[in-house]
Amino acid sequence: MKYDYCVIGGGIVGLATAMRLLEDRPGSSLVLLEKEAALGRHQTGHNSGVIHAGIYYPPGSLKAELCREGAAATKAFCAENGIRFETCGKLLVATSDLEMQRMDALYERSRQNTIEVHRLGADELKEREPNIRGRGALFVPSTGIVSYAEMCEAMGRRIAALGGEIRLSTRVTGLREAPDAVTIGSDGESWQARKLVVCGGLQSDRLALLAGLSITHRIVPFRGEYYRLPADRNDIVRHLIYPVPDPALPFLGVHLTRMIDGSVTVGPNAVIGFAREGYPRLSVNLSDMADYALFPGFWKTVFANRKSAVTELRNSLWKPGYLAQCRKYCPGLKLADLLPHEAGIRAQAVGRDGALIHDFLFVETERMLHVCNAPSPAATSAIPIARMIARRLMREP
């Protein structure tokens, strides 16, 4: 069967894109293919559920713009679809002179990004969060929490209502572009589409190679390990509690996150994953490991970040080290408070030169658009990202 559009990937970016295409082109035919038995099974369903405000991103950058728009659009979508969310606010806590300097720089960046942020002194921080200690903090009131898995379910219903078709348990095994259409194959079945958009997440580089594209990056899975607190400690914080990030490090650091179900998680760290989609602790996939081990950019990344990599690995293997990261600003936590919680895996695009790609990366042909990198805050920004993708995709060849 021939469709106007095919979307590969049932995470939140793929779903938002399919929804946008059907809204912009009523009556169009569209099929969304997802290899799992349910929507949002990977990055979307394993993240912290935060609706980010965009405080970290360079003023005027695409990430800053999309995050700001995305936070408003996410809250509006939830309100329209009866999905519970909470605007609980976030505190970035400084615990040293150096972090106070970084906090001041973040404050100036937030002002340039027109994000409401308030400085708090140590006493104001203690009054607002009695269990948190620091020399100062930035309070970002617009940060929220939500279940992105619930958003995926609502988007799936919206796609169906608009006439779109969703095929679950459908793994794509072939992609071939011709002058008039793209043929998509999957275990004896095939579809044709005038335009194809691929939101493959952890498999995005493999799908690009399957389509015959020449790419200079690979996906390296970074495993984010979390703990959760016992239920009787869920009132330990009122807001989300983040450390002030080190600009030299690629990730934000271990934080306390209130979840929409009332629980509180601690994490994540960031260690190399031995399987792209292996969430249990000892998951190993030799094919996944070979993919990045044979890519020269991986070893350049490891060397460039060797100090932080050793620290992260040590804390992954040694729970007291992990706890120490949290006790810097939450001294009341104990080892017994760190209960097992499912990990997440981040699809990190790495260039041949070893650079971590922090911006969006699209590869386009006449009839295909591959989202090769959709970095955090992609879940928050999914709705405006989808608008941007739809505009690109609607350009006729």
TrEMBL record:
Annotated FAD dependent oxidoreductase domain residues: 4-392
InterPro entries assigned: FAD-dep_OxRdtase, FAD/NAD-bd_sf
Pfam families listed in its UniProt record: DAO (PF01266)
Source species, domain of life: Bacteria
Cofactor(s) annotated in UniProt: FAD
This protein's UniProt keywords: FAD, Flavoprotein, Oxidoreductase
The family this protein is said to belong to: Belongs to the L2HGDH family.
Descriptive protein name: Hydroxyglutarate oxidase
Source organism: Shinella yambaruensis
